[in-house]
Amino acid sequence: MAPSLSSARPLLLLCILFSIFLPSHQQPPLNSGEQESVYLALESINSDIPWRTIFADDLCLSAPHGVVCDYFPEDPTNATASLTPHIIELSFGFVSDYSSNPPCSPNSTFPLSVSSLSHLRKLFFYRCFTQNPVRLPDFGSTLFGSGLEELVFVDNPSLSGSLNSTIGKFKSLRRLILSGSNVSGPVPPEINGLSNLEQLTLSGNNLNGELPINLGELKKLRLLDLSHNGFGGRIPESIGKMGMLLKLDLSSNNLEGKIPQNLKVLQILEFLDLSFNNFGNFGVPQFLGEMPRLKEVYLSGNHLGGAIPEIWEKLGGILGIGLSGVGLVGNIPASMGVFLRNAIFIALDNNNLEGKVPMEFELLGNLHEMYLQNNQLSGRIPFSSTFAAGIGSKLNLEGNPELCVDKGLTIRTGASFLRNVKICNESEIPNPTLFNGASSSLRLSWYLLMLLLVGHLGLFP
């Protein structure tokens, strides 16, 4: 008896699914040489795991998360040529539950077998070399293929050695990251041979010496991070040639002299961190006001001196400003409150600033952190209870003995930053006659409206 239509439906559906998901032709397997190289690499970073047993089949069909394949035509000139699999990425070291690369062991060694992976594009090590000493391989050796595009070492404290002159041979390298290691010595001038480099991060090592004068030849660079090393000397003038640069971080080094004015040529720069160096006695650079794309500027821990310049009108996109402990004198410009409406973080602490806290700072409605402690500021704190409650403990005013706060504001907010600030006496509280019963926000709106009207009528010379 022929099967009913209802009983045949499951079989029909199964056939349709097989026709959709079953490949039309079988891809060739990964060649045995590359398969063996990957096994050896896995065993070098963790010999306690039976990799050959767990992943006994073709590694391009079943492999640990950090092993990635791609398919290439056997004859690149023939559009119909059959495809051959090759290993293109090896990432070692547990990162997260969502990116569980093969975990490294305390006895990890550098995988010498990667030299035979001719199509390798990315090599990544995260916390792999943490106990046993491992030397950074010679870039001139055959360990790294000429097609490598990303070489990444993150948090490998037992990795030592130096960057040698052969580093410039990687013409295809786009991303070089070496952070949190024990690598020392200077950056060789041959680094300018990395003409396709887009990211250079060498932070948190023991690198020293002066920065190469030809560093600016890396004209495709978008991110340069040399922070937390021992670099000395001056910033090379050639850095102004990096017209594609978005982020520049040279913080926590021993750099000195004047912050070069040709940084203003970097018109698309968004992040600038030169903090905790020895730049000195030239003031906060005026040219920062000519870099409208800046979002974060950190110069804390230098010896700049001088007053805060009036440069903020074109910097409305600023999110963070760090000018802690740089020897600033004079008043805080009211223009910072008028123009920096997007600011989230402002640090002006540990300077010699004086005068009042500008009432225009009440306009900084997005502010999450503001540090004004240890200056010579005086007078009444102009903030409303709404502003004070919004910023909370992230506003620090201590170490300004002549500052005072309205008693009512202390009672209404109970904010911790007000506990060590004295209560204003009557002479320090503005005359409320004109604005009787008005809130501080209304008074501020009236004040700004009057400024606009006076300016419009041309009453200011």
TrEMBL record:
Signal sequence coordinates? 1-26
Q: Which InterPro entries match?
A: Leu-rich_rpt (IPR001611), LRR_dom_sf (IPR032675), Plant_RL_S/T_kinase (IPR051716)
The keyword Cell membrane belongs to this UniProt entry's keyword annotation: yes
- Its name, as the record gives it, is Piriformospora indica-insensitive protein 2
The record lists the organism as Nepenthes gracilis (Slender pitcher plant)
* Matches recorded under PANTHER family: LEUCINE RICH REPEAT FAMILY PROTEIN, EXPRESSED, LEUCINE-RICH REPEAT DOMAIN, L DOMAIN-CONTAINING PROTEIN-RELATED
Q: Report the locations given in the UniProt record.
A: Cell membrane; Membrane
Q: A Pfam family matched by this chain, by name?
A: LRR_1
Top-level taxon of origin: Eukaryota
**GO CC terms on record?**
plasma membrane
Coiled-coil region(s) at which residues? Answer: none
Keywords in alphabetical order? Cell membrane, Leucine-rich repeat, Membrane, Receptor, Repeat, Signal
Describe its membrane topology: Single-pass type I membrane protein
